Amino acid sequence: SQNRVKLFPLAHVDTTHFYVQVMLHKCNLMILTCISFQACHSEKHLGQYYTLPSAHIRTLFPSGLPWRYQQQVKTFNEACIMVRQPSLEVISYLKKTDYSKPALRYLFYGQKGTGKTISLCHTVHFCYTQGWLVLHIPDAHQWVKNCKELLPSSYNASRFDQPLQATTWLRNFRLTNERFLSKIKTKHRYMWTKREFTEEGSLLGELVDQGISRVKSSSDVVGAVMKELRLQSGQPGSDFRLAVAVDGVNGLWGRSTIKKEDKSVDPEELTLIYNLRKLMRNDWTGGAIIATLSQTGSLYTPKSAYLPQELLGERGFDSMDPFIPVSVPNYSEKEFESCYLYYMDRHWLQHPQSRTEEGKKELVFLSNRNPSMLDRICGFL
Amino acid sequence: MAASCVRTVGSFLGKCTKCSSSINTVATQVLLSRQVCVSSALCRKNLAAAGPEKFTLEYIQKQVEEYEIGKRHLANMMGEDSENFTQEDIDKSIAYLFPSSLFEKRARPLMKHPDEIFPKQRAVQWGADGRPFHFLFYTGKQSYYSLMHDLYGKILKIEKHQDRLRAKGLFSQDAQLISLGPSRWLTKEELELLLVETISTHDYDRFIKLMERMLAMPYSSTEEEFVQRYRRQLEAQSMKQMMPPLEKDENGVAFSTAEGRRKTSDSSVILRDCGSGHITINGQDYLQYFPVLQDREQLMFPLQFMGVLGRFNLECTVSGGGRSSQAGALRLAISRALLSFLSEGDGEAMRQAGLLTPDPRVRERKKPGQEGARRKFTWKKR
């Protein structure tokens, strides 16, 4: 079968108390809920929309949301996500896992445009509100293509650095996990050049600042940050949980279009990819890895591929194995209704035909209940 | 032979000294020796003035005999029964023995009865004494005028019949008009073929007017047989569309199958009355197969027009052509399959909407001397 999965027994977690921000949500019509945050993630609210506070959007997702969704947020002046089965499933698992066991890997997969990235963002937001440390890579494919600057790595001569991508990521990381930067201390000593080094026991914030200011060594800083977090999470002394969220994880084991002197570079030779692969291994505890497959940004994969085995390839599948695959399908009838009512509520559907029953049937037919297709069609109605 | 040759009869005689007997006969006949200037232009035959090639009756009969013999030979060659060798068999055998890839069908080798090949000609119109057989010969268009004469005779006969009935008191105005059925008058070309002579448009119009006048008279059904000779049956224009039969598969679900074509694409659709609106094309989801909205709109058109959007399941196969033509072929197939589920009025509405008309547009061929079908090469002034 496609998914060779070994399921770990999901034990109930004892109630650890994290601070929870109780969010007030907009209460519109029957479909949007006006409930507190914790209750929001339960099976009763399948198909209903809940609003992400804009402050969270700015910190959590400086570049994590899909482009079209960002446009929609700007237009509607609010960010609403539909509560759907796949993300709810992963959130329920996250609530129940025993964090003393190795990190579980969750993989969202599905056809193009069914909402994998949004599910990932939903899960990440849940982790954020639970007070976890979020390590979010918005798109792993961006690291294997269109690289403007490629430097030979200072740490390991056979590898290559990508300073621009690394600095961008570090900035986003700093923005997202502001509160942890002054709490976590490094356990190792890092030497960047002959004269610059970071002592043991210095704050994570300093490490990150070092990476942002010294662009040449930023990729190595990224590697250091990942290593530190990996080592420290799950330890008895640490008080945080680590959530690693990677979008387009199949890019890590695919091919790359970066060329160095007319020779194409293997992703393994890139520092960022190498370190990220190490992070994806489930040899650390106290957190979870949530990932998405994506064919759209991937290189040299056929358009019809969407299953994990096809997109991850042999190596990727072996590295990711065992993982929990979560399929993200098209909208069900109830979800479609909800989305349609949401657009109507926002006055997004202006065409008079679209308000009728026949118009709704046409939309169903033309989009086949695919979320992104529906969004595109409604865009010009 | 461009230069004019001046032949002198005397010099001609002078050369042929050996054939003395011929010279003598020529000499006795030719009393005067005159210079005869003959230009080569006159020597050439005026082909246009001769008209269509005339074949004699014996020639045509000989051709018929040869045809019959040839038919038997052909039957023997093909190993078929020579007694019952029909024209269809001949055509097939000739196509087998002389395969031709010419596009023009009329240029390919054929073997048909001489009557179909040689145009009908009139036999000689006058006897040995020079006196013509037909009394209207000197009108120039004897067949046409004799036809008009006969027609008028028939009209007079009908009028006489009417008078007789009126005398008996049995006349009724709207009795026994000819029922012609779906037919049309002979065209001018067909009439010319029938009469084996040319007629002008004016003549043809007069003929049709006279026929119509005769038909309009009551009691004209007595001459029905005469009139039918000059009418052609129209193909029964079936107003009914050919709808595919409605079958039921093992689960009791009604389904129908139809095919459609557009440009070079062929498609076949199985429409099931399930109620879920699920669509598969070549085993793939239609959203993956047709990522473009326009193609999906084409698929949607017949169902949306009839208002049955969520009712049917479609199982389609399509091959050939490009994206747009595949969508068009599928649309046609869906409309045809839908006919069996709908009423007559709905079918008529679909036909008027143009859903059931196969699109005849095909790619135009590229012509030599031009860059494409219509585009010419860049015109350069020098």
UniProtKB/TrEMBL annotation, chain A:
GO terms for biological process: apoptotic process. GO terms for cellular component: mitochondrial small ribosomal subunit. Pfam families: DAP3. The keyword Lipoprotein does not apply. GO terms for molecular function: structural constituent of ribosome. InterPro entries: Ribosomal_mS29, Ribosomal_mS29_met. It is found in: Mitochondrion. Its main location: mitochondrion. Keywords: Mitochondrion, Ribonucleoprotein, Ribosomal protein, Transit peptide. Belongs to the mitochondrion-specific ribosomal protein mS29 family. This is Small ribosomal subunit protein mS29. It comes from Oreochromis niloticus (Nile tilapia). The gene is DAP3.
From TrEMBL, chain B:
It is found in: Mitochondrion. Signal peptide: none annotated. PROSITE patterns: RIBOSOMAL_S9. GO terms for molecular function: RNA binding; structural constituent of ribosome. Residues 351-382 are annotated as: Disordered. One of its GO terms (cellular component) is mitochondrial inner membrane. GO terms for biological process: translation. Keywords: Mitochondrion, Ribonucleoprotein, Ribosomal protein, Transit peptide. Belongs to the universal ribosomal protein uS9 family. This is Small ribosomal subunit protein uS9m. It comes from Oreochromis aureus.
